[in-house]
Design a protein that fits this description.
Strand order of the largest sheet of chain A: 6-7-8-3-9-10
Distance between the termini of chain B: 58 Å
Helix content of chain B: over 70%
Largest interface: A-B, 24 and 15 residues
CATH topology of the domain at 1-82 and 198-256 in chain A: Rossmann fold
Radius of gyration of chain B: 22 Å
Largest sheet of chain B: none
Structural class of chain B: mainly alpha
Distance between the termini of chain A: 44 Å
CATH class of the domain at 1-82 and 198-256 in chain A: Alpha Beta
Oligomer: heterodimer
Number of helices of chain B: 9
Shape of chain B: globular
Order of helices and strands of chain A: EEEHEEHEHHHEHEHEEH
Helix content of chain A: 25-40%
Bound molecules: adenosine-5'-diphosphate, magnesium ion
CATH superfamily of the domain at 1-82 and 198-256 in chain A: P-loop containing nucleotide triphosphate hydrolases
Strand content of chain B: under 5%
Radius of gyration of chain A: 18 Å
Structural class of chain A: alpha/beta
Order of helices and strands of chain B: HHHHHHHHH
Number of helices of chain A: 8
Number of domains of chain B: 1
Shape of chain A: globular
CATH architecture of the domain at 1-82 and 198-256 in chain A: 3-Layer(aba) Sandwich
Number of strands of chain B: 0
């Protein structure tokens, strides 16, 4: 079986700074992969490479067995219609109301009429626990947790086959974080989507992952089933999941 | 010993100058590439009429007070200045004609261009820059919507269409400003002033100003979008983008005005 999403030896530098250094990873259809790793290790850049927002310097990226690097125009839009993405900072359009945000992929990407798209948006908002009167508000009027929920509703609005969650629980209180985790698990089950989630919150990782991979300095250094993460035998993984300052991962605290 | 810092300083000036020129050339190259994308991707289907209408309102309609006030006071000041500088006996015809020509050919479009660059160019750069650093532009891409089509093109189209309209209105108000100063405080005959204006003003004077206005609108939208789309690094980056958008469009407007004047009026 060809993996649904596959990255082979992907490299990306910004100027002299190497961010991805030969990253390889594969996710099978319908699986939920969680990528853990420290800040600034290239997790968001990896997702942006798959989406074509950032173009890798070298390496292969396949979705459904087909190469997606350097796609343009309609081909690229066609590919993106298969994805949903929850951004790290929610990235809601602040000039549009909440329901227009949720419906955006339908009204703009897919040419659905506004009234029909609005019904879908209200339905998706209900799925993430928001009432229809929230739909008329603007993103700036919402709390961080509510913004995350709206962003989640926007990511799942068009029932995509692949969904990326970039740090869905960062910056939320533990209870709201768990609410978001449950929503992600629910949504993914309902859609049967293939997902890649990024987090450094181990509670979240354990809850939503089928598989876990650890990224360090732009490479995947360990990958396995979620229940193996405690017995990885990998010193880096152990240090990360127990949150220890001592270990093989040296934080560049003193260097800028 | 005393010469050493001087030598170092002059070397530094040469190095700075060299670097500045290299940066300028690099920037010109980047703007050209951006412009190519903006036109090739932005001005081909799909179009977003709602966005275009929205931007026409923001760029054009909302700039009316600023442009109108600028034109009014400029027309008035021009009338006063010419009156003071001309002999008493041909002042009446001279004031009316120079106000009309000065406003329609040069001051109307240039001042409107500079005011709109400050108002709209800054707003475009700040809004798009914020969208860039908060990943809203990336989000747009993942929702299968081209930012050049959805964000840049509506601003470009709206600016190119509304700037000439703004300047046409500004021209009229500017001439009115001259008329009011001329007839109320300089004691000119009302009918004679209007007749002098009408006699001197040709359609070409008016249209040349409107052509300039469309070009200035183009400059303002392109520089606003370019600096907005390329801003990075949080609030500070957005601030830098805003300043650069205003300064670069102001300079380009003045340079383009010179080029257009020699093109349109030079024989
Ligand atoms: N567009 C960009 N231009 C320059 N540097 C970037 C860009 N995007 C990311 N980086 C750099 O790449 C590194 C990894 O970033 P990122 O993938 O966002 O980290 P994280 O793993 O925390 O998500 C960071 O040091 C960041 O500064
Ligand atoms: Mg990140």
């Amino acid at each position: 079986m060809t993996p649904h999403i596959e990255l082979k030896d992907v490299r990306k530098s910004f100027g002299p700074k190497q961010v991805l250094r030969g990253l390889s990873i594969a996710v099978n259809k319908g699986r939920s992969l969680v990528v853990i790793g420290g800040s600034g290790t290239g997790k968001s850049v990896m997702l942006k490479c798959i989406l074509g927002i950032i173009r890798p310097d070298s390496g292969e990226i396949n979705v459904g067995g087909e190469s997606v690097v350097g796609l343009r125009g309609t081909e690229r839009d066609q590919l993106l219609l298969r994805f949903g993405m929850l951004f790290q900072g929610s990235a809601l359009f602040d000039s549009l109301s909440v329901w227009e945000n949720v419906a955006f992929g339908l009204t703009h990407g897919r040419g659905v009429a506004r009234s029909a798209a609005r019904d879908v948006a209200i339905d998706k908002l209900a799925q993430v626990g928001l009432t229809s009167d929230v739909g008329a508000l603007y993103p700036a009027e919402l709390s961080g947790g509510m913004q995350k929920r709206v962003a989640l509703a926007r990511a799942i609005a068009a029932d995509p086959e692949i969904i990326f969650f970039d740090e869905p629980t960062t910056g939320l209180d533990p209870i709201m974080a768990d609410v978001i985790n449950n929503l992600i698990v629910d949504c993914v089950k309902r859609l049967g989507a293939t997902t890649i989630s990024i987090t450094h919150d181990m509670a979240s990782a354990r809850k939503i992952a089928d598989d876990i991979a650890m990224i360090h300095r732009g490479e995947i250094i360990w990958q396995g089933e979620a229940n193996q993460v405690n017995r990885s035998g990998n010193a880096y993984v152990d240090q990360f999941i127990h949150g220890r300052a001592e270990g093989p991962i040296q934080m560049d605290v003193l260097r800028p | 010993m005393l010469q050493k810092p001087d030598a170092a300083a002059s070397w530094n000036i040469a190095a700075h100058l060299g670097r500045a020129i290299l940066n300028l050339l690099r920037e010109i190259g980047l703007v050209t590439l951006f412009l190519k994308d903006m036109l090739a991707q932005g001005l081909t289907p799909t179009f977003y009429p709602r966005q275009i209408a929205d931007q026409m309102l923001k760029i054009g309609y909302n700039s009316l007070p600023v442009v109108g006030l600028t034109a009014f006071f400029t027309g008035g000041a021009l009338a006063l200045q010419i009156y003071l500088g001309s002999s008493r006996f041909n002042a009446e015809s001279l004031v009316a004609s120079i106000v009309a020509l000065g406003i329609t050919r040069e001051l109307g479009p240039v001042l409107a261009g500079l005011m709109v660059a400050g108002r709209v160019g800054a707003a475009i750069a700040a809004e798009l820059g914020t969208m860039k650093v908060t990943e809203q532009i990336d989000a747009l891409v993942t929702l299968a919507t081209n930012p050049f089509k959805y964000l840049a093109a509506p601003r470009l189209i709206a600016a190119v269409i509304t700037m000439p309209i703004l300047v046409a209105i500004g021209d009229t108000i500017g001439i009115m400003g001259g008329y009011i100063v001329g007839t109320r405080s300089l004691g000119f005959n009302e009918y004679a002033y209007l007749k002098n204006t009408a006699d001197f003003l040709k359609l070409d004077d008016f249209t040349s100003g409107l052509i300039k206005a469309a070009v200035f609108g183009f400059i303002i939208a392109v520089m606003g979008c370019y600096h907005g789309f390329n801003s990075r690094g949080g609030a500070q980056g957005v601030g830098r983008a805003t300043t650069n958008a205003v300064v670069s469009s102001a300079i380009l407007i003045l340079a383009a005005n010179f080029a257009l004047t020699s093109l349109l009026f030079g024989d």
